[in-house]
Amino acid sequence: MREERDKRVKWFMNDRFGMFIHWGLYSIPAVGEWKRSYERISLEEYDKYFDAFNPVDYDPEKWARLAKGAGMKYAVLTVKHHEGFCLFDSQYTDFKATNTKCGRDLVREYVDAFRKEGLKVGLYYSLFDWHHPDYHHYGDLYHPMRDNEEFKDYKYDINRYLEYMHNQVRELCTNYGKIDLFWFDNSYGDMVGEKWKATELITMMRKLQPEMVINNRLECNASAKGSIGTSNPTVYAGDFVAPEQIIPPQGILDDEGMPLPWEASCTMNNNWGYVTNPNNYKTAKCLIRKLVECVSKGGNFLVNVSPDARGRIPSQSEKVLLEIKEWFEENEDSIVGCGKAALEKPEWGYYTQKGNKIYAHLFEQNIGPIPLKIETSRIKRITSLHDMSEVMIVTPWVTELFPDYTFINFQEPPQGTFPLQNEIDTVLEIELNGEEERQG
């Protein structure tokens, strides 16, 4: 099973960087995707957003160009979030984009646009559903009617809902060509594993899309890794661990201490769904450095954008993506195909590695030359990715106390301060003599 998983995730662990896209009816009230749950909004009241939904500026080709330009190699779109609204033309519900003023299969357009740009295509599907009549209401952990006494005796049949859910997943795995990634969200409480008829579901998905990468959330939520980390994983354990809004301090290992595939997802501001607040966005500097951190620990990074009700990626997000693009154009080699280096983390930043090339990511200026914990005899050459200029190995008298380190600088005097060429992350390519495989 591990060999099959490793084969499926090979492209995923190579590509490293993706775009998450949270979009649905919740873009209209613009206070986040959990509005209906937090405010205990009835189905009838929430229908006003269905009636109003009309993203006249939806242009997935522009989304795809922004993602590709920023160095993202794949994307994941919320085709059905917890509200139950479907962006795709499902035959099993009327609560879908094709029945709104929009009248379009938005998933079809997304899939076609991202494939056109050469990007891998991922779909997000919520396991729970606040719109379906046969999903838990009263007493559920999240349902908007969870504490509404009018629903205390409400009768539902969870098996009817599971049939609906399985049918929709089958549609998504059948009607849109090859799907590279499927992102489930989210098991909780006792709604885990076989409560979703997970073995049956995964068996069907593997038959329809045998190469598709699937996350671990049929079995657990974002705070756990599930049986993927054991010697006896379930059929539905998934192919990678999916922490969110946190980067694992040391990466993620299985019970035997071997690295597991993982992907950290994060918001660009403080919400997954669109909000109007323009002032709480993470900077390109922050996101680039967190991408580097993920890769240095053997993981992926999935950064969210939240299109508005018109179908536009907000200008603040677009600005950040364009700034990431500027850095990525010079430094892509230090991310794509890279993973954890067989070196301890340095104080000045991180290392990533690909084969016999180690990439030093310098986040801060140093006093004097930069120390590398690499034997000088192992180094063939060092180059700045910024301009392909040579980086000198220096041995000034101030370094004599530290014979286990190689010291580098751009220029004379050799004991002077190392000048950073990019204040976000100056990347140096250290080519080693011979072939050395990266770790993790």
Structure write-up:
- The protein is α/β, with parallel strands linked by helices and 440 residues long.
- Helix content is 24%, strand content 16%.
- The chain has ten helices and 14 strands.
- The protein has helices spanning 2-8, 10-15, 35-38, 43-52, 60-69, 106-116, 158-174, 198-208, 284-296, 315-331, and strands at 17-21, 74-80, 120-126, 181-185, 213-214, 263-266, 300-305, 349-354, 357-362, 370-372, 379-384, 392-394, 406-409, 426-432.
- A seven-stranded parallel sheet has the order 5-4-3-2-1-7-6. Strands 8-9-14-11 form a four-stranded antiparallel sheet. Strands 10-13-12 form a three-stranded antiparallel sheet, with no helix packed on it.
- A hairpin with a 2-residue loop joins β8 (349-354) and β9 (357-362).
- α7 (158-174) runs parallel beside α8 and α9 packs across α10.
- The longest helix has 17 residues, at 158-174.
- The chain is elongated, with a radius of gyration of 24 Å.
- The two termini are 18 Å apart.
Notable features of this structure?
single chain, alpha/beta, seven-stranded parallel β-sheet, 10 helices, 24% helix, elongated
